[in-house]
Write a structure and sequence with these properties.
With 407 residues, the chain is of the alpha/beta class. It is built from 15 helices and 12 strands. The two termini are 25 Å apart.
Length: 407
């Protein structure tokens, strides 16, 4: 099965072509094409993602990413006026996209794909709609089934996607498969919009029974951890995106062995549940630096103190869940899983304290939003994609912020 996958949930425009050989979860995957455009530089001046700008950039970039992900030959194609009119209506709100897409499909051969997978949530509603309508348009033009994908399920599968690197070390162009998970498994999903603990009881082989496979056992009550990183970075005058900047500054503080700047709280560290809270931690940083002229070393120390507090909370909550539910595999996923201190601390702690546990961390190239993970999740859901489910996609964005366990 060849899968064309599309990701537009936030500020990355990504399109991939992935071939799956075998049935999920035992398939082998070959990445035939992969294209990604990051909008980070565009949003840096706003200090965060500006949804209307992100939507505009997705509309401008999707067709070029589609073309880049393919190895299509020039070949004249004919489409009926009826089909083209339906596509025109779908894309009428995206300036220039219809004309650009029709020019592409009429001049390049149709790809030999069996399925289109597209992110349908969670994410920013305006940006999700661009990708969904683009998938609908391609489904109409090429008469190919389309399946909606949960973005967070994609992050889980990306974390357990094990590749056989080629000699160049370019992981994204090698073959691989999913790890042999031991259940029950636990996924700690940490990103700009999410901090949640998902218990996996089995592989998601039956869409209708997904609630039985995914169970949300903990979540943030306010800010997501990635959001807290960005807000603290802004308080310290560090550029967007804040996560890498906090990590860099914190690393420098550790290398220089700088003293603690301020004792920061560990919100909900000892609560009886598995929920998180990071809003108060961000506020504590604000009070700690308020009215002070911070040197570069001060900023580094604050970044280190903040990062240490975050890591301690994440680690303790994860360990508590591991003990409570007799977890056999722990998965770390989402954009914040690229944080070096989080990765190193989790790897060291669980290797020492829970050597029987399998810990899975995503390849750094697959930790942030990408379309490879959407292809993996699309393959997991492919048994239900029996026809071009155009109408079925329409209501999905309205529930785009739902957890996996609420599908």
């Amino acid at each position: 099965m060849k899968i064309l996958s599309i990701e537009t949930s936030c500020d990355e425009t990504a399109v991939s072509l992935v071939e799956a050989t075998g049935d999920f979860p035992n398939a082998k995957y070959q990445i035939l094409g992969n294209a990604l455009f990051s909008q980070i530089d565009i949003h840096r001046e706003y200090g965060g993602v500006f949804p209307s700008v992100a939507k505009r950039e997705h509309a401008k970039t999707l067709v070029p990413m589609l073309k880049k992900s393919q190895n299509a030959n020039l070949k004249s194609q004919n489409y009926s006026e009826e089909v083209k009119n339906d596509v025109r209506v779908l894309l009428e709100r995206e300036v220039g996209m219809y004309e650009e897409l029709i020019e592409y499909v009429e001049n390049y051969e149709k790809p030999a794909i069996d399925l289109i997978a597209v992110t349908a949530g969670p994410g920013l509603e305006p940006t999700l709609w661009v990708g969904i309508n683009f998938a609908k348009a391609l489904a109409l033009l090429w008469n190919v089934p389309v399946v909606p994908v949960n973005h967070m399920e994609g992050h889980i599968l990306a974390s357990i996607f094990k590749t056989n690197d080629d000699k160049s070390g370019n992981t994204l162009h090698s073959n691989g498969g999913l790890a042999d998970l031991q259940f029950p498994s636990l996924a700690l999903l940490i990103s700009g919009g999410h901090t949640e603990l998902i218990k996996m009881n089995d592989w998601p082989l039956d869409v209708a029974r997904s609630k039985q496979h995914y169970e949300k056992i903990g979540q943030t009550r306010d800010d997501a951890v990635g959001e807290a990183f960005d807000k603290v970075a802004r308080l310290l005058g560090l550029p967007y995106p804040g996560g890498p900047e906090i990590s860099r500054a914190a690393g420098e503080a550790r290398s220089a062995n700088l003293p603690e700047f301020h004792k920061l709280p560990r919100p909900m560290l000892d609560s009886d549940d598995l929920d998180f809270s990071f809003s108060g931690l961000k506020t504590a940083v604000r009070y700690a630096i308020e009215g002070k002229e911070l040197s570069e070393e001060d900023k580094q120390a604050v970044a280190r103190d903040f990062e240490d507090a975050v890591v301690e909370v994440l680690l303790k909550k994860a360990e508590r869940a591991v003990n409570k539910y007799d977890i056999r595999s722990l998965i770390l996923g989402g954009g914040v899983s690229a944080n070096r201190q989080i990765r190193d601390t989790f790897a060291s702690f669980f290797a020492s304290e829970h050597p029987e546990l399998n810990l899975y961390l995503p390849d750094l190239k697959l930790s942030t939003d990408n379309s490879i993970m959407i292809a993996l999740a699309g393959h997991a859901r492919s048994s239900k994609a029996l026809a071009p489910t155009i109408e079925a996609l329409s209501p999905l964005v309205a529930s785009g912020n739902r957890s996996l366990s609420e599908e």
